[in-house]
Design a protein that fits this description.
By secondary structure, the protein is an alpha/beta fold. It has helices at residues 2-13, 28-42, 54-62, 70-73, 100-108, 141-149, 183-191; strands at 21-24, 48-51, 78-81, 85-86, 92-93, 113-118, 132-136, 154-157, 171-176, 196-199, 201-202, 208-213, 216-221. It is globular, with a radius of gyration of 17 Å. The relative contact order is 0.18.
Length: 223
Amino acid sequence: MNDLKLQAARKAVEFVEDGMVLGLGTGSTTRLAVDEIGKLVKDGFRLVGVPTSIETERQARSLNIPLSTLEEVGEIDLTIDGADEVDPQFRLIKGLGGALLREKMVAYYSKREIIIVDSSKMVGVLGVKTPLPVEVVQFGHRRTKAALEKLGCIASLRGGDQPFVTDNGNLIYDCKFDAIADPERMDSDIGAIPGVVENGLFIGLATSVIVGTEGGAVIRERI
């Protein structure tokens, strides 16, 4: 499976041009792409990266990729990121790596976002295999959990008795639905709950998906 991820990562990096501002995603597949971007910098490409997590920032610095912030760059030419699930409409579930808030912000301000996955991440309906991560503030989070479960899920605090804390100081509830038949409605309903910071439904943000398959990397463009 790592070979398929690397295949997708390398194909995505072919779209990187000298002088670009790049959004650097988070996760095992994106880590491979950041390694490839580091090789471009070593070869003389003048690139600037905006990392979506402290983890990615550390990796980029180790590769001597020049870094900036969302405030400083204003707009991002291209973001390369992974996903936990991708449906036929390019709607995504992201956030199993814990960086969904920063990932969504960077994606929103990107001219183009390429999602790199292996074929196992392509699904017919979101939420059947993967729980939906929801980032919440720590204050009153058990009340937030109860409100989330009214939407039809089982919400589990990531980390349990030793909760996972995001780079933004928040908690994550992993919300297991039988399926998410209407992602747009679910996105709206979750966003209306006080205490929710962001959720892992990424809708209308991915412009391309590159899928690593046994037959080679397949590029799919959003119509």
